[in-house]
């Protein structure tokens, strides 16, 4: 009799725990609008980056040497395979300034176009390059900045004929790196236990301990150039600027709602409108600069983790998921009534 009572009690405890979890995951209010739509891509490759030469003409890159082009602002895409031999490349970054564009990836590769992508040429890279090209930023005619996965930063102003190193030493193995509009970088260590920052007025990386017990998932910069953090376990933290000792001042870390699903990226559409993407189709939005959060439930049925949010402009944005998943921004969000 006692065993039966204990067995029944454990069953009810499991049921109550599951109900509590589901309630917690749905504790945030839901946006009263449709801001994103799924875009069908002619590939199962995972998209890693997107850039536009003009509001209608853009390119995206990804795994398996994926290169796709759009002429309607990202509503539809067509594959543009390149003849690169038998190697299968992971194109990690693409950047355009007008019709001049650059692509980097792994194994080590740098591609360049000056005619909007009608033709691409391969740029030779030194075999002594520390790490693999990770991210590229087009700066203007014949000018581009490239950072490797070890944090070595180089810039050219003569169409890659000559390169200038911006840092004296690389920062080491990283899990991800992000760049601000004004050229600052933040790199997360491979295990997420600390982060390093680079300011273009300096020639070396600065190392920082993480702010709490949780490991860092990713970091980036707000429109004012202050960093934000997504920690493991769905925790968010914003910086308000610098302390007198030169380190960053941080607000208290928080978890939007009680949702424990991992958060993967954060991006600003406007100074007040902030989006966070995460695992299992999680998409959150704040309309007051991160003080309160709402859930976009219209993408809950997208069977993908949402890895990266990219706003090309305040009117044009994309969310990148796994295995050919791409969402396109279609309208500003409306808060729930």
Secondary-structure topology with pairs:
Blueprint: H1 2-25, E1 36-38, E2 47-52, E3 58-62, E4 67-70, E5 78-79, E6 90-97, E7 100-106, E8 109-113, E9 121-122, E10 133-140, E11 143-148, E12 153-156, E13 164-165, E14 174-179, E15 185-189, E16 194-198, E17 206-209, E18 216-221, E19 227-231, E20 235-242, E21 248-250, E22 263-268, E23 274-278, E24 283-286, E25 294-295, E26 306-313, E27 316-321, E28 326-329
Sheet with most strands: 4 strands, antiparallel
Radius of gyration: 22 Å
Total count of strands: 28
Mean pLDDT: 91
Estimated helix fraction: under 10%
Query: Counting H and I runs of at least 4 residues, what is the number of helices?
Result: 1
Shape: globular
Q: Identify the strand order in the major beta sheet.
A: 1-28-27-26
Structural class: mainly beta
Strand content: 35-45%
In brief, what are we looking at here?
With 337 residues, the protein is mainly beta.
Question: How would you explain this protein's 3D organization?
Answer:
With 337 residues, the protein is mostly beta strands. The protein is 7% helix and 41% strand. It is built from one helix and 28 strands. The protein has one helix at 2-25, and strands at residues 36-38, 47-52, 58-62, 67-70, 78-79, 90-97, 100-106, 109-113, 121-122, 133-140, 143-148, 153-156, 164-165, 174-179, 185-189, 194-198, 206-209, 216-221, 227-231, 235-242, 248-250, 263-268, 274-278, 283-286, 294-295, 306-313, 316-321, 326-329. The strands form seven sheets. The protein has a four-stranded antiparallel sheet, with no helix packed on it. Strands 2-3-4-5 form a four-stranded antiparallel sheet, with no helix packed on it. The chain has a four-stranded antiparallel sheet with strand order 6-7-8-9, with no helix packed on it. β2 and β3 (58-62) form a beta hairpin. The radius of gyration is 22 Å and the shape is globular. The N and C termini lie far apart (52 Å). Mean pLDDT is 91; it is low at 5-25.
């Amino acid at each position: 009799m006692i065993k039966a009572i204990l067995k029944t009690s454990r069953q009810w405890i499991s049921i109550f725990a599951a109900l509590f979890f589901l309630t917690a995951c749905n504790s945030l209010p839901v946006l009263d609008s449709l801001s994103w739509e799924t875009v069908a891509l002619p590939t199962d490759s995972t998209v890693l980056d997107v850039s536009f030469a003009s509001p209608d003409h853009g390119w995206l890159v990804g795994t398996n040497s994926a290169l796709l082009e759009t002429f309607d602002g990202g509503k539809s895409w067509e594959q543009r395979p390149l003849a690169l031999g038998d190697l299968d490349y992971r194109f990690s970054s693409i950047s355009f300034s007008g019709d001049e564009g650059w692509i980097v990836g792994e194994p080590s590769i740098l591609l360049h176009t000056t005619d909007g992508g009608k033709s691409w040429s391969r740029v030779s890279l030194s075999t002594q390059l520390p790490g693999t090209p990770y991210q590229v930023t087009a700066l203007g005619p014949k000018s581009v900045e490239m950072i490797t996965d070890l944090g070595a930063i180089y810039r050219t102003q003569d169409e890659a004929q000559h390169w200038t190193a911006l840092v004296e030493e690389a920062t080491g193995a990283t899990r991800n790196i992000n760049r601000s509009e004004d050229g600052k970088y933040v790199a997360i260590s491979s295990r997420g236990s600390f982060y390093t920052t680079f300011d273009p007025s300096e020639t070396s990386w600065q190392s920082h301990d993480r702010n709490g017990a949780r490991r860092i998932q990713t970091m980036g910069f707000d429109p004012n150039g202050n960093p934000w953090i997504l920690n493991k376990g769905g925790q968010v933290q914003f910086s308000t600027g610098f302390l007198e000792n030169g380190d960053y001042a941080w607000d208290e870390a928080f978890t939007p709602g009680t949702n424990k699903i991992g958060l993967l990226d954060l991006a600003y559409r406007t100074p007040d409108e902030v989006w966070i993407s995460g695992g299992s189709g999680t998409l959150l939005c704040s309309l007051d600069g991160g003080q309160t959060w709402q859930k976009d439930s219209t993408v809950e049925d997208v069977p993908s983790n949402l890895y990266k949010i990219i706003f090309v402009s305040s009117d044009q944005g994309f969310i990148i998921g796994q295995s050919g998943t791409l969402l396109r921004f279609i309208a500003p969000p409306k808060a729930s009534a």
